[in-house]
């Protein structure tokens, strides 16, 4: 009797999952090939080196100075992390707390932007004269000169609707929609893609074999690009990308002087790099 009940529950669960997938498929436009703006610069497959949080050899990451340093070295494309302060203003910062860059373990969600900007950032473990910049001032200084990969750090912000509306409004009003990629975890980027298909979206993951999952995301929920770490890529992974004509939609983190020449040969167009002079010939 118990076994029969468990079997019935399992069958009911499978049926519900299948029905949910079918509903998502209908809402999401099915599972075929996704239309992309083939003439847009992002979809050409041209090698682009992306400065990871700028270049932080002379100033802390995610600052105006690290972005200016990247630009000085020849980068046209920069990755930056954004998150919201207690008063709902966006600023550039990667971590959930301030241990590494402020020397404090307090969760940053308890600070207003003004309070955060009163604290000096650490650079190479020592206090510096630099402060976190707001996303607004960053855009004001670099929107005419750089292309952006914006990594949204939600860190507990589950109000997808409001967050997506705010980010899209800022990009639209600043005229940055066509020179920005917006990335985050899968659920948020899937929602962003569905709600604002004009944005160029990136989701973090998958790694190696789980790349197959990407093709089964309904088209209207399917982010435009996929990013993960270079160390997760295998020969099989590269073969699958080429067979499915997705090599141009791939981005990689975790690239430095030690693996740059190896990764460069894979043909993946977007490499988010920790700058080293060995990369200079491709800038």
Low-confidence region ranges: none
Query: What's the end-to-end separation, in Å?
Result: 69 Å
Question: Which CATH class of the largest domain is shown?
Answer: Alpha Beta
Major sheet characteristics: 8 strands, parallel, barrel
CATH topology of the largest domain: TIM Barrel
Tell me the overall shape: globular
Estimated share of beta-strand residues: 15-25%
Number of helices: 9
Q: Which structural class is indicated by helix and strand composition?
A: alpha/beta
Question: Average pLDDT across residues?
Answer: 89
Helix fraction, binned, reads 25-40%
Order of helices and strands: HEHEEHHEEHEHEHEEHEHE
Domain count, please report it: 2
Describe it for me?
- With 283 residues, the chain is of the alpha/beta class.
- It has nine helices and eleven strands.
- The longest helix is centred in the first third of the chain and has 26 residues, at 2-27.
Features:
31% helix; 283 residues; two-stranded antiparallel ribbon; TIM Barrel; alpha/beta; 9 helices; eight-stranded parallel beta barrel
């Amino acid at each position: 009797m118990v076994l029969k009940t468990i079997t019935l529950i399992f069958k009911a669960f499978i049926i519900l999952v299948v029905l949910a997938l079918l509903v998502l498929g209908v809402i999401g436009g099915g599972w075929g090939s996704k239309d992309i703006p083939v003439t847009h610069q992002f979809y050409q497959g041209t090698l682009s080196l992306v400065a990871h949080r700028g270049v932080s050899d002379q100033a802390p990451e995610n600052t105006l100075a690290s972005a200016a340093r990247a630009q000085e070295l020849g980068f046209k494309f920069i990755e930056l992390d954004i998150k919201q302060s207690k008063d709902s203003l966006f600023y550039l910062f990667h971590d959930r707390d301030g241990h590494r860059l402020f020397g404090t373990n307090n969760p940053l969600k308890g600070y207003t932007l003004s309070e955060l900007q009163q604290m000096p950032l650490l650079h190479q473990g020592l206090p510096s004269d630099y402060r976190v910049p707001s996303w607004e001032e960053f855009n004001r200084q670099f929107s005419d000169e750089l292309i952006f990969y914006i990594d949204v750090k939600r860190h507990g912000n589950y109000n997808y609707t409001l967050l997506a509306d705010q980010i899209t409004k800022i990009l639209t009003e600043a005229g940055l929609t066509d020179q920005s990629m917006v990335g985050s975890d899968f659920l948020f980027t899937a929602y962003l893609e569905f709600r604002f298909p004009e944005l160029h979206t990136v989701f973090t993951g998958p790694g190696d074999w789980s790349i197959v999952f990407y093709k089964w995301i309904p088209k209207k929920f399917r982010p435009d690009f996929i990013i993960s770490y270079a160390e997760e890529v295998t020969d099989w992974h590269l073969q699958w990308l080429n067979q499915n004509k997705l090599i141009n939609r791939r981005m990689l983190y975790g690239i430095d002087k030690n693996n740059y020449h190896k990764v460069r040969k894979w043909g993946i167009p977007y490499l988010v790099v920790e700058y080293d002079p060995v990369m200079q010939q491709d800038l």
